[in-house]
Amino acid sequence: MKAIIHIGLKPGVLDPQGRAISRSLNDLGFDEVVNARQGKVIEIDIKGKDTDLAYKRVTDMCEKLLANTVIESYLVEIKK
Amino acid sequence: MRTAVITFPASNCDRDAAVALHKVTGIKPVMVWHRDIELPNDIEFVVIPGGFSYGDYLRCGAMASRSPIVADLVKKAKKGLAIAGFCNGFQVLTEAGLLPGALMRNKGLKFVCRPEKLEIVNNTSRYTSKYNDQSEVVYPVAHHDGNYYADKETLNKIEGQGQVIFRYKDNPNGSVNDIAGICNERGNIFGMMPHPERAIDPLHGGTDGIKLFKSIIESI
């Protein structure tokens, strides 16, 4: 199985990198861009076949290391 | 009194911290490696130094805060052990949950390296009691991720309880409320982005940092 974890800054937390990206896109002529948020994606290969258990374990990984829940939120996807 | 400095892979201010502690206590601190599982028993003050532990992978301080020695520090912090973290050390303390809030990328997105004027907000803390005759200090800053963030509730709490110890006079990184240094509720744990250990010798350009080390050492 593969776990795909999307981690991003929580809404309301200022993202200076996202702001720089959005400005750069505007400079390139992409006038429709009003805002950008930058995050990260972590992919983890996992042993076993129990997707519910994998989801629980990966959520635990997020809480213990992968995300800093003071500033970040995360989304876990498990793929067979 | 015996003190200790923790060294992680890519710490780079551990020796500066050791010189500062040696100068103030007269005894060389114990250098403790991050894989050690326990501090020596007689250690009464620990510095988590600046640097780029684990290459700042994942988040600054995230890996270091999960290392074996930090698990022991967390245990001893609850019993009242005095611990200070400067720069990367501050990031490690927030990541370990020993101090509230988090350090994010600088608002200006640039690495900032310069002498920084700071207001001493609380000079009755265990880390600032020797500054009774001054209201400002200059310590150097050198960081890319020093933008202090905490949610409103946490901010109200730390502001209300005198846990904000230093504020920037000319905010270099976008920190909320210009916060440069904070302590925990109990007052034994302290973290700041600027480097007092790099302001202890006239050749550093100033000696404002000495009193911070004297304050905490004398409080023990």
Characterize the structure shown.
Chain A contains two helices and three strands; from the N terminus they run βαβαβ. Chain A has 80 residues and is α+β, with helices and mostly antiparallel strands. Chain A has a single domain (2-79), classed as Mth169, Chain: A, CATH 3.30.1280.10. Chain A is elongated, with a radius of gyration of 16 Å. The N and C termini of chain A lie close together (5 Å). Chain B is α/β, with parallel strands linked by helices and 220 residues long. Chain B has a single domain, classed as Rossmann fold (3-Layer(aba) Sandwich). Chain B has five helices and eleven strands, in the order βαββαβαββββαβββα. Chain B has helices spanning 14-25, 68-78, 88-95, 152-160, 210-219, and strands at 2-7, 30-33, 43-48, 82-86, 102-104, 112-120, 136-143, 147-149, 164-168, 179-183, 189-192. In chain B, the strands form two sheets. A nine-stranded mixed beta sheet of chain B has the order 2-1-3-4-11-10-9-6-7, with helices on both faces. In chain B, strands 5-8 form a two-stranded antiparallel ribbon. The model of chain B has no long low-confidence stretch (mean pLDDT 97). At the A-B interface, α1 and α2 of A face loops of B.
